[in-house]
């Protein structure tokens, strides 16, 4: 149980570090109070990404075959977590790519990638 929690926490930290933060941390310039802004998801159909975690000891040849068969483009590898971030090809939905990858025996899990940004301060 503790190992599962550690894995989830490690994955969350990696995702946050990968997508990063923007601007001035959400602070207002005039009175230094926290800006109350909800994060917004920014994705377009042609630029959607998925995060795939492969099972341990999955050969690179199998990873490449999955990538080619699903029509994915490699964006980044995170070898410490045995994860790959792929861009979904135009004309293929992210849901289709996720469903295809979930059926593969070499995939431990797969999810849609999302990029969050804080909203800019609204003018008074």
Your description of this structure?
A hairpin with a 4-residue loop joins strand 3 and strand 4 (83-88). The termini are far apart. The model is unreliable at 21-43 (pLDDT under 50). This protein has helices at residues 2-19, 60-70, 94-102; strands at 40-41, 49-54, 72-78, 83-88, 107-112, 116-117. By secondary structure, it is α+β, with helices and mostly antiparallel strands. The chain has a 4-stranded antiparallel sheet, with helices on one face.
Helix content class: 25-40%
Order of helices and strands: HEEHEEHEE
Structural class: alpha+beta
| Stretches with pLDDT under 50, minimum 5 residues | 21-43
**Into how many domains do the coordinates divide?**
1
Give me the number of helical elements. 3
CATH superfamily: Peptidase S8 propeptide/proteinase inhibitor I9
Would you identify the CATH architecture? 2-Layer Sandwich
